[in-house]
Amino acid sequence: MWVGRFGRIRTPLGGARRGAVTTALTCAALLAGGLAGATPAAAGGGDDPSPVRVAPGVEYRSFTLPASHGPARAHLLTVDLRDPRVRLDLLYPGAVAARRTVSAMADAAGAVAAVNGDFFNITETQHPGVEATGASVGPAVASGRQLKAAVPDGQRFGPALPPGTHTPDVFGVGVDRRARLDRLDLHGTVRTEHARLPLGGLNQYALPVGSVGAFTSDWGTVSRLRSVCGTDTDRAAPCSTDTHEVTVRAGRVVATADTPGAGPVGAHETVLVGRESGAQALRKLSVGERVLVRHRLVAADTRVPFRFAVGGYPVLRDGRPLPGLDPLTSAVRSAVGVSDSGYRLHLLALDGAPEFRSGLTIAEVAQLMRELGARDAFSLDGGGSSTLASRDPGAPAVTVRNHPSGGIERPVPNAIGVFADG
Fold this sequence. Notes:
Layout: H1 2-5, H2 16-31, E1 52-55, E2 58-65, E3 72-80, E4 86-91, H3 102-109, E5 113-116, E6 140-142, E7 145-148, E8 169-174, E9 179-192, E10 196-198, E11 201-202, E12 212-215, E13 243-249, E14 252-257, E15 269-275, H4 277-282, E16 291-299, E17 306-311, E18 313-317, E19 320-321, E20 330-331, E21 334-339, E22 344-350, E23 360-361, H5 362-371, E24 376-380, E25 388-391, E26 398-400, E27 415-420
Parallel strand pairs: 11-12
Antiparallel strand pairs: 1-2, 2-3, 3-22, 4-27, 5-25, 5-27, 6-7, 6-17, 8-9, 8-17, 9-10, 9-16, 12-15, 13-14, 13-15, 18-19, 18-24, 20-23, 21-22, 21-24, 25-26
């Protein structure tokens, strides 16, 4: 039964809002509105308080709870990483600057379940004529492949970051199979025959002012022009007019341009984009000159390499909600919680149906994760992006369990995929 499984539900920690969340979870054992095991969420669903086994080590359930702005319905995947048949990985469309629906990415990769991932560059209304890239805000690692680094804090899309958090913050699973929150910092250099330049970005839709960024074949075909727009503190600031681009193939400069271009980057190529002082440094390079570009993402706290990582922002650390979490703004949200020393995960997406669309505040999300037993929790993209999908037992494809608030699934740049053998 559900109460037994979530025996760690605690008494209220103080305050009416916290009490409401705790009471709702306690009552959910009897009143949970479960869509699993019956009809898919899109068809209306029924009530079933029992968890449904999706695959070995993976369970799904849903429940309704009262919240500060009205009732909310939560869809929850519980994943046991102690089971050797279970793993997590990043789902993405094959390029950083691309988007696809969560269900399509899950089915293409053979995942048994998934929840949407990071916030992303969804629009460019402030920069007419500049193409929105669809690329995510934070770092991304898939199957150990380091795809991209984080944009500057002031260039992110999504709600304001809680105090003390930054765009390089990630949730992921290390090569030790333990899930954790950490920060992935970019360490990189551009070595020329005359200078050694720090690398300011890797496959990012926004580069720091005065920096040089690297674009590889992982970026995709979308224009790189967006990377020189805005500033470190103002996403809407005009695009830089002092830019330069250099294409390096097999260690030598093969082309230069004054404006960032578009199109695919070859498997053995790196395109360097500079703005302001970074552009001035790149202008000194000539075709045929030797250039060596190195880059890696380093876990700041543990130094344990990530096999999988996705951006967002922390809301709970060591069992305590972060100070300064917004207790007022309510929305449809997605999040992930970590418990049992990094071996148990709680993947959450709220329902966007009209009767539940008020959602939760981010403070309520942190408290909900705490009541579920998480020691650490991480907010993912929300609103129309919030999507949770899982397979019915024996089914060949996933079913979207929540109602996306836009009425249909929104294409997103990445998602957390759950894989299970057997």
